[in-house]
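ARCHIVE CARD
CATEGORY: sequence design from structure
SOURCE FIELD: tokenized fold
FIELD CONTENT:
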């Protein structure tokens, strides 16, 4: 996959900067494009957070603050729709994943950069984080035994069906990592490849329509990467009461969103 990545000046500069340090340690290390891009995003978020921390205002917010607040509220709205009053509890991880994916998708539209999400290593790492996170929260909410009982099927399933249900559930949960990984990687990698080919045919002008489409695709893929882990979280932290009522862990009825979630996840 790395052979398809075109050389980037900023990556060469970073490698030239850190090469003496690695040589002093006796290592021969070349930092790949996608790791440099991820590092840029992390540093940019860090600097942005430090700058905004001293400039946030309730009485007189800046336009940039208003935009950021609207984006945060949009994510909170999704979380609360599926998870009820517990939604805000999961904002730090889900919101950070969404922001990272959004910025990573758009980096490929900037000359001299590439989208780190066009590399399968990055999308796989994001998918694994989301996968581990929703399982850990399911265990924390329901307990180890109760959580893994759900892998054996709904209450009342015949005992002979339990092994089959267990295998099906395990395959289903593992396939979520593959689904999150390949969906994001395929869309962004394909987009970057088409832009590169068009740029070689007719420089500057031919890639513009595809780059405009990339603005929509990048936002859509970030939205999906917020929505699907939220749906998985809903399935993990919901506690089934077998007296016929289905309630969320915080006591609110979540049966209707859960049905919608199953449809979207499918």
């Amino acid at each position: 996959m790395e052979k398809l990545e075109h050389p980037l000046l900023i990556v060469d500069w970073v490698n030239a900067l850190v090469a003496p340090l690695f040589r002093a340690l006796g290592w021969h290390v070349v930092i790949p494009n996608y790791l440099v891009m991820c590092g840029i995003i992390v540093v940019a978020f860090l600097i942005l957070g430090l700058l905004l921390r001293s400039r946030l205002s309730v009485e007189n917010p800046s336009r940039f603050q208003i935009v950021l607040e609207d984006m945060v509220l949009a994510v909170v709205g999704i979380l609360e729709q599926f998870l009820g009053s517990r939604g805000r509890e999961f904002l730090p991880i889900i919101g950070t994943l969404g922001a990272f994916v959004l910025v990573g998708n758009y980096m490929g539209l900037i000359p001299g950069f590439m989208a780190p999400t066009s590399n399968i290593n990055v999308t796989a790492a994001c998918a694994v984080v989301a996968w581990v996170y929703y399982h850990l929260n399911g265990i924390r909410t329901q307990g180890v035994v109760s959580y893994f009982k759900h892998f054996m099927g709904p209450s009342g399933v015949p005992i002979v069906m339990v092994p089959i249900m267990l295998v099906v559930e395990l395959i289903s949960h593992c396939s979520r990592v593959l689904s999150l990984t390949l969906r994001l990687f395929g869309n962004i990698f394909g987009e970057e490849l088409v832009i590169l080919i068009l740029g070689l045919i007719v420089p500057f002008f031919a890639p513009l329509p595809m780059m405009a489409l990339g603005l929509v695709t990048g936002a859509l893929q970030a939205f999906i990467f917020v929505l699907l882990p939220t749906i998985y979280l809903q399935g993990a932290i919901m506690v089934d009461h077998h007296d016929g009522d289905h309630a969320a862990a915080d006591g609110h009825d979540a049966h209707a969103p859960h049905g919608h979630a199953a449809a979207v996840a499918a």
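CARD ANNOTATION: The radius of gyration is 22 Å. The longest strand covers residues 239-240.
SHELF: design records, drawer C
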